[in-house]
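To: structure desk
From: M.T.
Subject: fold request, one chain
Message: Could you run this one when you get a chance? Sequence is below, nothing fancy, just the single chain.
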Amino acid sequence: MSKAAKLMRVTYLVLLVLLLLAPAMGLYPVFVMKALC
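Reply: Done. Structure tokens follow.
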């Protein structure tokens, strides 16, 4: 596996974990603000 592919996989895993944890931590408003800005 190339370094870039490994980095992409790790990035997707982190994003998935954040999406799952965001509701529990109440981060959606903050996340939306960062995404829009």
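Reply (cont.): Helices lie at 3-25, 28-36. Let me know if you need anything else for the meeting.
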